[in-house]
Amino acid sequence: MGSMSETPTPVLPEEAFAQAKAKLSDVMDRAVHGHRPQVIDRHRGKERAVLVSESDLAVALETFEFQPKVSVSEGEFIVRLPELNVIAAGETYDAALDDLVEIVETQARDYFDRLDFMLQTDRRSQLPWLLKFAITPDADRIALFSPGGKGAPLEVPQPA
Fold first, then answer.
1. What local confidence, expressed as pLDDT, does residue 130 receive?
2. Is the separation of the CB atoms in 141 and 67 below 8 Å?
3. Which architecture characterizes domain 69-145 according to CATH?
4. Predicted TM-score of the model (pTM)
5. pLDDT tens digit string along 25-68?
6. What is the 3-class SS of the chain, one letter each residue?
7. In sequence order, what are the beta bridge partners of 42?
8. Residue (of 154, 147, 111, 148) closest to 129 by Cα position
9. What ranges do the domains of the chain cover?
10. Residue 113 above 60 pLDDT?
11. Which CATH architecture has domain 14-60?
């Protein structure tokens, strides 16, 4: 172990903004193809960002699995998403899922448009869930809310 006066080696590679900007292609290659998150530092540590590949972020968010609650009331399918505190409905299960995707997409757009504000509220815990939704391709989003994919729920109550 080194002495206390030595500067510790950072766990993640760090790059000053000017250098990162000058060789952005290399920085992107390390983050995306090398699967090595890159810390970009500007103004001597006052502003820091982490560049990570979208696929690596998806892996980091794998444990954030939505647990939709499905019920049927008066012939209408209702899907509640506790993680985001939203409810959708439709005449069929698929229609309710389609509605849920639209609602969450609208919520995600609003959230990221106002991220600084949202992080100051109790909605800050929704960040990983909404990031997962946002980086999921449009065609795959419905599967986030249905364990077997569109039209294949594990257990959906039948209308009475």
1. 98
2. no
3. 2-Layer Sandwich (3.30)
4. 0.83
5. 999 999 999 999 999 999 987 899 999 999 999 999 999 999 99
6. CCCCCCCCCCCCCEEEHHHHHHCHHHHHHHHHCCCCCEEEEECCCCEEEEECCHHHHHHHCCCCCCCCEEEEECCEEEEEECCCCEEEEECCHHHHHHHHHHHHHHHHHHHHHCHHHHCCCHHHHHHHHHHHHHHCCHHHHHHHHCCCCCCCCCCCCCCC
7. 47
8. 111
9. 14-60, 69-145
10. yes
11. 3-Layer(aba) Sandwich (3.40)
Write the CA distances from 19 to 11, 34, 49, integer angstroms: 19, 19, 14
Q: Which of the pair, 158 or 88, is modelled with greater confidence?
A: 88
Torsion, Cα of 106, 137, 116, 61 (10° steps): 120
Q: Looking at residue 147, what is its pLDDT?
A: 64
Indicate whether 141 pLDDT > 50: yes
Closest to 51 in 3D by CA, of 88, 78, 23: 23
